[in-house]
Amino acid sequence: MDTPVVAFALASVLHAGFQVTVTTLAYPALAARGPEGWRATHDRHSRAIVPLVAVVYAGLLVTGGFLVASGPDVAGWLALGGAGAALAVTAALAAPIHGRLTTHDEALVAWLLVVDRWRCAAAVVGAVAAVAALAG
């Protein structure tokens, strides 16, 4: 079996699992927090999640680079596209929203939840395609 395909599939499944956990557990808990104590709660969330994001995203980027270098098949390119879309949504939308959430803002929190669902969908599509690439 092609090592870059296996490595990227593992990184993609880890990423999807992480993202599903954030979408179904972490963000709803954060969104349920009212204005009282918002800053402390948001800061605690950020401190806890940034190291995990760094490890998961680094794994995607490194294994994705190896996959690109190996010449992926169609499923591999779809997997890379899903992961890339999730990373792009994070960089272009989710991270800037977090930066603006210094105080509780219902509209921004609602927008963050929508953006996060897009990111989750992209991560899951990427993982499914990466696993399919294993069969190719």
Task: Report on this structure.
With 136 residues, the protein is an all-alpha fold. The chain has one domain. The protein has 4 helices and no strands. The protein has helices at 3-31, 38-70, 74-100, 106-135. Helix 2 packs antiparallel against helix 3 (74-100). The radius of gyration is 16 Å and the shape is elongated. The mean pLDDT is 95.
Low-confidence parts: none
State the secondary-structure class. Answer: mainly alpha
Helix content: over 70%
What is the succession of H and E elements? HHHH
Number of domains: 1
Compute the number of helices: 4
Shape estimate: elongated
Query: Mean pLDDT, nearest integer?
Result: 95
Report the sheet-strand fraction: under 5%
Brief write-up:
With 136 residues, the chain is mainly alpha-helical.
List keywords for this structure.
single chain; 136 residues; mainly alpha; 4 helices; elongated
Ordered list of secondary-structure elements with their pairings:
Blueprint: H1 3-31, H2 38-70, H3 74-100, H4 106-135
